[in-house]
Every structure is written in C-alpha cells, then in structure tokens.
Amino acid sequence: MIKLVLLTGFLGAGKTTLLQRLLEHFGNEPTGLIVNDFGKVNIDARLLEQDGIAMAELENGSIFCSCIKENFINALIRLSGENLTYLFIEASGLADPGNMAQILAVVGSRGSRPYDYRGSVCVLDGESFLEMADLLPAIGNQLKHASAVLVNKEDLLCQERISRIRERIGEINREAPLFFTSYCEIDIDDVIEGLASSKEEAGESTNTPENRPYSLILRQNDNLTMEELRSFLSHIAPRTYRIKGFARLSGKAYSISGVGTHIMILPWKGEIASPEIVLISSVGIGITGAVSEGIGKYASRSLRL
Amino acid sequence: MGKELLMKVLNHEDTDGRIPWVPFAGVHAGKLKGYTGKETLTDASKLIECLREVHKLYEPDGMPIVFDLQLEAEILGCDLLWAENNPPSVVSHLLADEKRIPCACKFPTRESGRIPVILEAMEAMKREVGDDTALYGLICGPLTLASHLRGSAFFKDMRKDPDYVIQLVSYCAEYAQRMAELYIEAGMDVIAVVDPLVSQVSPKAFATLLSDSFKAVFDYIRLKGVKSSFFVCGNATNQIEVMCETMPDSIAVDENVNMVTAKSVTDRFNIALSGNIPLTTTMLFGTQQDNMKGVLDLLDSIGNKQNLIISPGCDMPYDVPLENAVACTLAVHRPEEARTLVANYSSDEVDVSGIEIPEYAALDKVLIEIFTLDPEQCAACTYMVKSVEDVYGEIRDMADYNVYKYFIKEDIARTSKMGLKNLPTICIDGESVYISIIPDRDELIAEVTRRYEMKRKP
Fold first, then answer.
1. Is B299 in a helix, a strand, or coil?
2. Which of A57, B354, B377, B431 has its CA at 20 to 30 Å from residue A258's CA atom?
C-alpha cells in the first residue's frame, strides 16, 4: 500500500517548505508528489522538482473543488500504478479537505494499488492564524480534519500569542498532536510516523468556485532591476494573500516568496525557463488596479501582464 | 493612415482637426456580401469576406470584427434565439432559478463556443489590413453578461442582495479579462467593453456595485498594452461621469446622449468620445443627404475636436443602405466636399398625421406602452419588455400593454407624436413613467394598481 499524506495550510503558511523537508527526509525511498496551485503557472512544482520524484501537477484551484476534482482523482489513479512508499499531496492554500474520504472511495478499485491514507498535516502561519481563521472557513476545516498540526513562524510569536493559538486550535481539534516550529524545522518522523487518520466525519468541502481567490500572473523584461522589483512588490503586497514566483535580474535567477507584507527574494540555483510572478489577491479583482498603478509607478518598462 | 489617426486620438493627442471614423458594421457587414446576419456570425470565411468589403467600401480608421453581445452567455450555457439579420438574443438564463456564481473552469479558451470563428477572422484581418486599420475586439460588458446569466431577477438582486450582485459582476469582469486576453493575442488594437445596460442603472448604484469590476477590466486592458473603449446604449447622460471614473481610453454613446454635453464631461477626464449617428432615423431610413448633414451637424456642434471619434450610435442595422454609410464616410473624411453636396438641404419632418393617440382616461383598463428601439436586439429594451411580461399574469385584469419598435415607420411616428426623447421608455396611460429605467416588479404592480383604482373612483 502507498502511504498517502495530505498537506494543508493557508497560502504562505509553509507547506512547500515542509514538502522540501519531507522529500529530503524520505530521499532514499520512492516518493510521489501531487501539487496543486492557482493559475496556469505551477510555481510550487518548479520549487520541488527533482530527479526520482513521481509528480502530478494540478492547476486552477483547489483539488477539492468540483472544477478539478476529476483531475485529482485521475492523478491518484495514475500514481497508484507507481512503485511508491509515500505519496504526498500539497493542497492549494484554500483547500478544504472535508471530502477526502469520498474522493478515496471513488479512487478505490479503479487504482492499481490501494492507498493507506495516513491523514493530513495542517501547517498554520502562527503570525496570521488567529485573524485568518475568523475570515476563511476553509482554514477551520483544514484544522478540523488534521491528524497533525504544525504552527510555523514560532520565532515571530510571543508567549501570549502562542497560548491564544493553542486555545483556538483546541476548540477546533483536540486530538491532533500540535507542534510549534520555525521554517518547518522539526523531526519529520515525529510528525509522519505518529499520524492516524482524523476521526472527523467526512462532510462536503466548502470549496466552491466562488471562494477561489483571484490571481494574476506577471512577466518581466530583461531590464528589470532589484529595486524596481522590490518597490513594486512592496506596493502590491498589502493586497495579496501570497506572492510567489521567479525573476531574472542582471542575468541571475531569484525565487520570490511573499506572505502578506513579508517578501523574500533569494538567489535560486535551478534553471528558470520563463520568469513569472503569481499574485494571489486578497482584495478580489480590484488588485488589477493596484497592479496597474504599481507598474506605472515603479516598473513601467520592465514588468507586464 | 487611418489607424495612426485613431491611435493618436486614443492617446489623446492633437490631430489638427482630423477626426477618425469607426463604422460599427456588425451584422450589416453580411448584407454587403449577401449573407444573413447569422451566417456572418457563425462562419469564419464568410465573416472575413464581409469584413474585407467593409474595409473597402467604408474606408474605416477602425473597425470591429464582430458585434455580438450574446457570445459569452452562449458559452456559459444560455440558449440563444437566432434571427436571420440580427445578432441572436438570449432566451434562457443559466442562473434564473439558482443564485450562484458559475465555475471558473467555464472561463473562455480558444476553443469555446464561436470563439474559433472570431479568432480566425481577427487573425486574417490583422494580416490583411492590420497595418492601416485599427481593429476592435468587442466583448460583452460585465453588467450585461451578469443580467444575461441571471435574467430579470438581476435587477431585483441589485436591491435585495447587493453582495451577490458584486460577486456575480466580478466573475463576469474576470470573464471579460479572459476574453480580452484572447482577442489581444489575436492582434486587436482596441478592446471595446460593450455594456448597453449601464444606462439603466443609476450612477450611484453603478459606483457602489459595479464600478470596481469595470475598472478592473480597463486596468487589465491597459496592462496588456492596448487601448480600450466603453460602449453604452440608451440615455447614459447621467452615467458618463461614473463611466469615466473606470478609466477607459474612450467612451462610445448612441443618439440618446447629447454629444456636446457628454464631451464636456469626457474632456474633463481626457477620455475620447465616440458617437453618435442615429441608427434608424438617419442611417436606416434617412437619405444620403440626411447622413452627410447629420455627421456635419455633429462635427460642427462640437467645439473641441481633440478626443473625438465619429461612429454610428451602436451596431448598424442590417439593412442600412450602403450609400448612407458611404455618405457618413465621406462626411467624416472629406467634410468640405460633403458640405457642398448638402447645401440648402433640410430633412423632412416625421409625418405623424396618421397616428392616433388613445383617449387614456376613457379606457377601462390602464394602458402600458413600451417604446423600444428593438425589443429583440437592444438588451435594455429586452429587459424592459420582459419586466412587463413577467408581471402581466398578475395585472391582466387591470391593464393592457403594447410594444412599439423604432424600426417600424408608424412606431417612429408614434414615438415622435408622444414627444418621447429617449428609448426605451414605458408610458402608462400616456405619461412617461420609466425613462431608460427598468422597473422593479413590485414597483410596477403598485403603479398599475394605483392607477387602476383611480380610474374606478367615481
């Protein structure tokens, strides 16, 4: 049986970082990966690409939403034919895994080998969790169905906030072991070996087309400078849940990752075919105006749609 | 050449008094080659043939590829009623009984619905005439698309469930962005967001519920590096300012709007104004002289010639005589030549002698008269007629209704005799009650009931 682990967590909580740690940890075992991202460009797939990993990329929304549920099921069926020990699924940030059990029931006999669903690991952004949980029902559902909970960015939290987070998580899910960490630096065996599928009863996912966030993809010209990029991203960041992508500045590749107003631009060793930046809006379609203004102000000749 | 002139206007530059001409030949293009409107809108090779003819005969500085606001609704699952020589109309509404937002997986692609036909024509025309003529890709505006999807219930939603309206219009705006992207990739120089219903919504409601979505579409088009236009039909005089605030590069209006008044607003925003040769009275039923004079009078009435485009008020009727459109071409491109041709010419007054106006007070029932441009083709007219049809079952004992169409000579005369200046308008017992505003169901029933009870009082 292939051990199946689902990773959930809001945009920018640290799911991709956790996946990188998992792939490192299980490097000697045959491992598969399903990544799910918004928009046409799957940035996470590029970040996680490496030899020997069986990967399926899904795009355009949550795997639990009716739009692409079928693609998700087909990917599960296809990967069940691979000789894998573990299959990790990185759900997009707003995925609501309420109907995971139903999905596995559909995969059931259609797959080559059965899956052993170990449960889901929910990664939370310690900095924003308390506010976001009130705003977005998907976060509460991710937590409710979790078999383990990782609260990331511990280094940025005071004791009082940690207590409030513990209390809030306890109201939603008392069963799942809770880990506080930074940059997902944690003993992977502790998290993965101890997983037991959530006892929560399956329900309908809250994922519907209308709660899919609006996203825009930006492209760059060769003349883009670090200063232009930084200024533009700082301008637009307050209107985003998440910024991610790649840029090429003076011939060098960089990865871009932003959550709320925190933005990191780091040198990137891999190849980037076409540099692109995905903006996931927290203000709906209205971000178009802010992008137009930001490009006009800071990068009129170097950034474009 | 023409394209350069039009682009200068859309860049708000001075053109030394030269004005560009953009004939909106939609289904009318079909007439030029003997094809029906339906053939023109469904067959790429016929469409291309017709567009070549428009380019040859009307010497356009800019021209649309198709004028069909139903294309997007059709892709999303609404049924269309095809007419031979008109664009189709929407007859069933996907969300009529279900208040939801359609799935993002329904966003258009190169393969959706009739888009392959349109892209083929766009790409061909771009190759053939794209260097000298600016090409317009027309997309259905978010408000009209939302009402196509939801039907007449949409207007009630505006009052009862504004959050839903914002969400649905925002979805339609994202849809419009995707349409714009496809058309821009096919080489379009201008994307026109065509939203006739904007004139039916108060400026306040537009600003509160719709403005952000429209602005997002125009911002997107600008970010894509092409020009935009915001087309409206009907009396949008009061909406011009809020339309300008969404920042299109140009606005196109029909004969219901006074160009001089509108231009005083668009000039403040440095936005180009396009319009507004009357479609039926002048282009369809007028003479060549009427058309030349109409254009010259329009040009003469406007002081500031910068930021100005001459075009028909909206999609030209199928049967516009070729010579009338040619007359407009001449008047825009060579006004002095046209002036000598129309010297001492004055148009005939509309003959209203055969029209009888009912004695309303003597009627047993209340009489609702709906004066439209065309109840099948003008979206605002369609929804206005539907607003009465929808409640008729409940008021039939109290009221009768008639629909008048401004492409029938007798109806034009009746409209004139009633003294109506704007279409569509609903008159009740001879009084203009809803001018360019689609009445709410409850409101209409209350108005008819009140008038019926007045009649019955001794």
1. helix
2. A57
Cβ neighbours of A304 in B, within 8 Å: 223-225
Contact B215 A289 (CB under 8 A): yes
pLDDT at B90 over 80: yes
Rounded to two decimals, the ipTM of the complex is 0.72
Q: What is the pLDDT of residue A93?
A: 60
Q: Which residues of A touch B174 (CB under 8 A)?
A: 214, 285
Domain positions in chain B are 2-342, 360-456
For chain B, what is the total number of helices (H) and then of strands (E)?
19, 13
**pTM score, whole prediction:** 0.78
Name every chain B residue with its beta carbon within 8 A of the beta carbon of A292.
Answer: 219-220, 222-223
The C-alpha R_g of chain B, in whole angstroms, comes to 22
Least confident range of A101-110, B194-203, B350-359, B374-383: B374-383
* DSSP symbol at B203: H
Q: Which CATH architecture has domain B360-456?
A: 3-Layer(aba) Sandwich (3.40)
Name which of A218, A285, A291 to mutate to probe chain B: the one with the most chain B Cβ atoms within 10 A of its Cβ: A285
Above 70 in pLDDT, residue B264?
yes
Q: Under CATH, which architecture does the A2-193 domain have?
A: 3-Layer(aba) Sandwich (3.40)
Cα B281 to Cα B291: distance, rounded to the nearest angstrom: 10
Top-confidence residue, A207 or B320: B320
What is the helix (H) or strand (E) element at residue B171, kind and residue range? helix B162-185
The pLDDT value recorded for residue B287 is 87
Closest CA to A219 of B174, B107, B224: B224
Position A96 pLDDT exceeds 70: no
Confidence label for A49 from pLDDT (cuts 50, 70 and 90) = low
Instruction: Please name the member of B102, B177, B223 whose beta carbon is closest to the beta carbon of A295.
Output: B223
What is the signed CA dihedral for A167, A171, A175, A181, rounded to 10 degrees? -40
Asked if residue A209 has pLDDT above 50, the reply is no
Which residues from B are below 8 Å from A212, CB to CB?
104
Q: Is B164 on the interface with A (CB under 8 A)?
A: no
Is B275 exposed, middle or buried, given 0-12, 13-18 or 19+ CB atoms closer than 10 A?
A: buried
**Domain ranges (residues) in chain A:** 2-193, 213-304
Given a cut of 60, whether residue B66 has pLDDT beyond it is yes
What would the CATH number be for the domain defined by B2-342? Answer: 3.20.20.210
What are the start-end ranges of the H helices in chain A? 15-25, 43-48, 69-79, 100-107, 129-135, 137-144, 159-172, 188-193, 226-236, 287-298
Q: What percent of chain B has pLDDT over 90?
A: 76
State which fold the A213-304 domain adopts. Answer: Hypothetical Protein Yjia; Chain: A;domain 2 (3.30.1220)
CA distance A182 to A150: 9
The pair of structure tokens assigned to B113 is 């619905």
Instruction: Compute the distance between CA of residue B200 and CA of residue B88 in angstroms, rounded to an integer.
Output: 21
Peptide bond into B424 cis (omega under 30): yes
Tell me if A288 and B223 make a contact (CB, 8 A cut-off).
yes
* Residue B245 binned pLDDT confidence (cut-offs 50, 70, 90): very high
In this prediction, residue B423 has a pLDDT band, given cuts at 50, 70 and 90, of confident
What pLDDT shows up at residue B60? Answer: 95
- For the cut 90, the answer to whether the pLDDT of residue A100 exceeds it is no
Answer whether residue B373 shows pLDDT above 60. Answer: yes
Given A60, A68, A292, which is nearest B222 (Cβ)?
Answer: A292
CA B3-B85-B368 angle, 5° bins: 110
Please give the helix or strand (H or E) that residue A246 lies within, else none: strand A240-249
Query: Which of B103, B164, B174 to probe the A interface (max A CBs under 10 A)?
Result: B103
How far, in Å, CA of A39 to CA of A287, rounded?
A: 15
